[in-house]
Amino acid sequence: MIMQIENRRDKIQEFKKICQTHRLKVTPQRIAIYRELFNSDTHPAADTIYRIVKKEYTNISFDTVNRTLLTFAKIGIVDVVEIFGGAKRFDPNVTKHHHIHCTQCGKILDFYSRNYDNLAVPDEVYEQFQVVSKRVILKGICRECRQ
Ligand SMILES: [Zn+2]
Ligand SMILES: [Zn+2]
Fold first, then answer.
1. For residue range 35-46, what is the model confidence (pLDDT) as tens digits?
2. What is the rounded CA–CA span in Å between residue 140 and residue 103?
3. Gap from CA of 50 to ligand 1 centroid (Å)
4. Were 104 and a residue from 66, 67, 75, 145 both cysteine, which residue would form a disulfide, CB within 3.0 to 4.6 Å?
């Protein structure tokens, strides 16, 4: 179900290029933050990334990690996931995809569906909104939580 299609090295190269385009300095810390987000498939919160990156860069603060992730979101390298209350969650996958939320452990996984991509937006929505993106969000209980 989870597809991290591109390989890691390409992804880091692409990351560096986008940073340069936006005049964002590519520092080892920023690469580490992006790498850990990219390596995770559960859409982690800043706190989770902070705890991992801190092992390598012991002086890094939570604030720096959080601010960096928000900057990444601003320049479009990552997305902020739809969350209804609770900490912001980040998504390194900016291609078209859908989400399944586990209501027990809180992990969010990606999935792909042509059918969902092509869902028609109801007329009454179009009357009021210019729709800029569509995502189907499913909720359920993951395999680990059911065991
Ligand atoms: Zn779960
Ligand atoms: Zn996602």
1. 999 999 899 999
2. 6
3. 22
4. 145
2 C-alpha to ligand 1 centroid (Å):
15
Choose among 43, 53, 49, 56: nearest CA to 4: 43
Q: Which of 26, 34, 112 is nearest to 73 (CA)?
A: 34
Residues 75, 22: contact at Cβ < 8 Å? Answer: yes
What Rg, from alpha-carbon coordinates, does the chain have?
17
pLDDT band for 101, please (50, 70, 90 cuts).
very high
pLDDT at 6 over 90: no
Ligand 2 centroid, distance to 38 Cα (angstroms):
11
